[in-house]
Amino acid sequence: MGSTRRARRGPGRSGLSRVGSHRDAIEGLEAAAQLPGKLFHAGTRREQDRIVTSGGRVLCAVGLGNSVRDAQREAYALIEPIEFRGMQWRRDIGYRAIERERGCGPDLD
């Protein structure tokens, strides 16, 4: 029986602080909700019938998998349908854990 690994990816706003534009509509949340994993809201709020940015780090995507690499892929898949003005995210988180995992087992690619 294998253990489950988690990877987090956080699409954030430019500057990652409470400065800059707010109230940018976030698109793609419905599509992301149909995928495995979880999206956690931080810098968001509801305005009428839509979710908008409210500054800072906006979302955190968490993927699960049998390996760190699988969890990372799932987290990135959650981010794929999401769009909002100024959206950016790191693409390097988890690489050290993936390298360690590769060093003590079979190639996971």
Write a compact overview of the structure shown:
With 109 residues, this protein is α+β, with helices and mostly antiparallel strands. Helix content is 24%, strand content 22%. It has helices at residues 29-33, 68-79, 95-103; strands at residues 5-9, 38-41, 44-47, 50-53, 59-65.
In DSSP terms, counting alpha (H) and pi (I) runs of 4 or more, how many helices?
Answer: 3
β-strand number: 5
What would you report as the Rg, rounded to the nearest angstrom? 15 Å
List SSEs in N-to-C order: EHEEEEHH
State the helical fraction.
10-25%
Alpha-beta content class: alpha+beta
Describe the largest sheet.
Answer: 3 strands, antiparallel
Please, what is the average pLDDT? Answer: 78
Describe the structure.
With 109 residues, the chain is an alpha+beta fold. 24% of the residues lie in helices and 22% in strands. It has a 3-stranded antiparallel sheet with strand order 1-5-2. The protein has a two-stranded antiparallel sheet with strand order 3-4.
Core attributes:
109 residues; alpha+beta; 3-stranded antiparallel beta sheet; 3 helices
Write the layout of secondary structure elements.
Blueprint: E1 5-9, H1 29-33, E2 38-41, E3 44-47, E4 50-53, E5 59-65, H2 68-79, H3 95-103
Antiparallel strand pairs: 1-5, 2-5, 3-4
